[in-house]
Design a protein that fits this description.
Blueprint: H1 7-27, H2 31-54, H3 60-83, H4 89-112, H5 122-144, H6 147-183
Helix pairs in contact: 1-2, 1-3, 2-5, 3-4, 3-5, 4-6, 5-6
């Protein structure tokens, strides 16, 4: 058995495979199915992390694939929700712009410095949490037609927007510090 083919990595691969199925369900307005599949995908995320920590089964492949699976799933869900007319396009544009900014900043840091550690910030985690919560509430609203979920979905757009923008600004600030420290000879492997 190859070292990358571990049980936690299989759960990560399952999440990668679920992403296009969830997107398809949303686009075809099968909101309840999409909600159930998204719950299953979220479960694979919790399970793979737990198994990797509990049994010392963390691998470089898992560390690489896990954030890709998470980002592919979340961006796919938002793109599908916008295509289905559930969330406003401007919110999707802000989320995508932040992700592209972080990706470009990370690439610049990788090219300009010897630093390789880019841990997530508390603001990035909060932004991701609110993006997931908002997507789930919109799917629930579409699946059940609940006025409460409709009001909650409309209200969640604003903190999600604020945290997405703020986390992008914060990552930019951290990236600038990272570049400055890398150009001035900070020890490799240090992180902000």
């Amino acid at each position: 058995m190859r070292t990358w083919l571990t049980l936690p990595n299989l759960f990560t691969l399952a999440r990668l495979l679920l992403a296009p199925v969830i997107v398809s369900a949303i686009v075809h307005r099968r909101s309840f199915a999409a909600l159930c599949l998204l719950a299953a995908a979220a479960a694979t995320d919790m399970i793979d992390g737990y198994l990797a920590r509990q049994f010392g089964a963390a691998t470089a492949a898992g560390a690489f694939l896990d954030p890709i699976a998470d980002k592919l799933l979340l961006t796919g869900v938002y793109l599908a929700l916008a295509l289905a007319g559930s969330v406003p396009w401007w919110l999707v544009v802000v989320i995508f712009a932040r992700d592209l900014f972080i990706l470009a900043s990370s690439a610049a840091a990788l090219l300009a410095t010897k630093l390789r550690a880019f841990p997530p910030s508390v603001w990035g985690k909060a932004s991701t949490f609110f993006q997931i919560l908002t997507a789930v509430v919109f799917l629930g609203r579409d699946a059940f037609g609940s006025p409460f979920l409709a009001a909650l979905a409309a209200a969640l757009i604003w903190p999600t927007l604020a945290l997405t923008v703020w986390s992008g600004v914060h990552y930019g600030w951290r990236g600038a510090r990272l570049l400055r420290s890398g150009l001035t000879g900070a020890p490799p492997g240090s992180s902000l």
